[in-house]
Amino acid sequence: MSKKLEEEFVKQLEENQNIVHKICRLYTNDQDAHNDLFQEVTVQLWRAYPKFRGDSKFSTWMYRVALNTAITLYRKSTRRVKTQYYDSVQFKIADRPEDDEQMEQLTLLYGAVKQLNDIEKALVFLYLEDKNYREIAETMGISEVNARVKMNRIKTKLTKIINP
Amino acid sequence: MDQLDILKQSWQSQTDNAPRFSKEQLYVLLARKSSSIVKWLFFIAIIEFVLFIVLGIISHFTNEKNDTIEMIGEPFYYGSMILHYLVIVLFIFLFYKNYKNISTSQPIKRLMDRILRTRRTMKWYIWYNLIYVMTVGMIGAVIIIPHDPRISELLNSPNFIGHETTFYAAFLGLTFVIFLILCVVLYLIYMLIYGILLNKLKRNYNELKRMEI
User: Looking at the domain assignment, is residue B33 inside a domain?
Assistant: First the structure.
């Protein structure tokens, strides 16, 4: 039974690992830390898996556990030497001459998001993952109104970071 | 369109040089041990429980060897001891209840809340022990002084006659000061251990709380 559960879990994790990678990328600054956090998220997901009832989607449940791990449980400092880690992020966009500029802007935006604090990052992450405010509020454990207000403040903050 | 929506459009398409993990690699990751702060809090709590229980047992053993029990009176001695262990059992129960409630599947703020609550239980446990030691120690001293032949002898010596009150005051005052120093030292050690562990959590928790206002 346990073996079957493990197989089922690994299959789901393998399919959805992109979510965890995106969170790790957002919360760490180098590949070692990335792998460390990924490791911890995996252990936490597996530990919580028996209680995952399937009444929500696996990916939705994953957001919660992974963010909880990154923000709350992960012990190692994320303040390592800042490398240009986010440069390794690529966005697939159509290959046209004007795309270089767009690519540059995306990288700049991503860099700005990385400068936010842990909580702000989580809100932005969920927003970028196309979650609505109800879901964002539920995951964070705050009210929907507060999530909305905070999100607007973060948008202002990001604009200021990009255009100082 | 605002800045974030530009990013959102391309967000799902982001790729990275980091390799994806294969199923085989994921199995290996599963087998590894967690190094989360909850685990550390758990170990520290166990050490705290064991430490004070062992200290209690040692002090009872040493007391039984001399005539402390006789001087202090059995009802007070055993009464305080039974009460003490009942309270410790209560703390273990409270800790266990809080610890069980820590789950990564709950909303971020609630998880933080639960962790901090577990930590608070342990803080009260330490304070309880210190206050217990001081209260019982002081009451014990007050009871013992008139009964201890060595002290009575000392008090009856010519130098001390007329200064009994001063002696009592000095004795209790000194006990109190020693206790206070002990508390401060312990408190600092605690601030350090938990500070290192929970610094990030507290900062994030406060950030979430600020949103609620």
Answer: no
- Give, for A21, the enclosing helix (H) or strand (E): helix A2-27
Instruction: Provide, as residue numbers in chain A, all residues whose Cβ is less than 8 Å from the Cβ of B111.
Output: 68, 72, 141
Helix (H, G, I), strand (E, B) or coil at B124: helix
State the complex-level ipTM.
0.84
The CA angle B83-B88-B89, to the nearest 5 degrees, is 100
Q: What is the per-residue pLDDT across A2-46, written as a single tens digit (0 to 9) for each?
A: 888 889 999 999 988 989 999 998 998 888 888 889 999 999 999
Extents of the domains making up chain A: 1-83, 96-164
Probe site for chain A from B13, B16, B37, B201 (most A CB atoms < 10 A): B16
* pTM of full prediction above 0.90: no
CB contact under 8 A, A10 and B23: yes
Residue B29 in any domain: the answer is no
CATH fold group of domain A96-164: Arc Repressor Mutant, subunit A (1.10.10)
Q: What's the pLDDT tens digit per position in A72-104? A: 988 765 455 555 555 556 676 655 556 677 778
| Domain of B62, in residue numbers | 38-212
| Residue B137 and residue B63 in contact, taking contact as beta carbons nearer than 8 Å | no
Nearest to A87 by CA among A66, A67, A114: A114
Q: Which residues of B touch A106 (CB under 8 A)?
A: 6-7, 10
B14 forms bridges with which residues in the sheet? A91
Q: Tell me, yes or no, whether B15 lies in a domain.
A: no
B117 found inside a domain: yes
Give chain A positions within 8 Å (CB) of B17.
Answer: 88
Residue of A nearest to B106 (CA): A64
- Does B7 lie at the interface with A, CB-CB under 8 angstroms? yes
Q: Which residue has the tokens 């009210």?
A: A143
Interface A-B: count of C-beta contacts within 8 A: 177
